[in-house]
Amino acid sequence: MIEFKNVIKQYPNGTIGLNNINLTIKEGEFVVIVGLSGAGKSTLLRSINRLHDISAGEILVDGKSVTRANGKQLRRIRRDIGMIFQSFNLVKRATVLRNVLSGRVGYHSTFSTMFGYFPKEDHEISLDALSRVNIREKAFTRADQLSGGQQQRVSIARALAQQPKVILADEPVASLDPLTTRQVMDDLQRINRDLKITTIVNLHFIDLAREYATRIIGLRAGEVVFDGPVSEATDAK
Ligand code: ADP
Ligand code: ADP
Prior knowledge:
The chain is α/β, with parallel strands linked by helices. It has helices at about 40-50, 70-80, 95-100, 110-115, 120-130, 150-160, 180-195, 205-210, and strands at about 1-10, 15-25, 30-35, 55-60, 65, 80-85, 165-170, 200-205, 215-220, 225-230.
């Protein structure tokens, strides 16, 4: 589902973010990427939906080249990729439902979504997504009235509303307490199992990675230093 071929990412200031990454992630996998701060986890994730360009190599998603895609092709690829951030990135003053509906934007012309118009089907898809993360009763609450854990579940629902093939979660639990962390990780795991959505999660705690991943990839200084099943990941720091 996702393929990295000799991928190098060098930032304009010269810093190497990724140093020759080769990876294949299969459909339906639940992969956790671990590594210390600065290891390249975020750079790797952001390269997949081309939030930034890579310097060399190629990345494929579902057989399509992200690297060579033109504007229209890239929008099509991005529709299949739901992204979840540490800081939730919700529109704070909008309702939960409005936020989740924004996951549907890629399915419509800019013109209709500019005026906040979404067909009935989109409302149903969005409410279903909220049910999957057990937060449907908050649909008409303003996003900024929710706790951090609830906001992260809304952002998961927004990703689900895209009906994506892939979910990328960049340190999704880094600002949450231990209990909420588990709820959010449980949600991601359940969604991966029930909907077969290929999932990549960046974490900096190896213990959490071991508990949830089927495969752990360890990064250090932009290189893969471990890649294997959880059972072998005892030294994966
Ligand atoms: P992680 O997500 O594992 O903490 P990052 O992918 O954020 O690591 O960073 C990898 C390396 O790239 C680090 O050395 C970081 O300082 C550097 N880096 C990240 N973003 C930028 C940027 N916009 N400009 C320059 N260097 C960056
Ligand atoms: P986080 O680890 O929470 O993702 P970072 O500190 O890695 O946050 O990055 C915050 C922002 O600063 C990101 O947009 C990243 O691209 C940028 N950044 C990170 N490291 C550098 C760097 N060495 N030089 C320039 N920008 C950087």
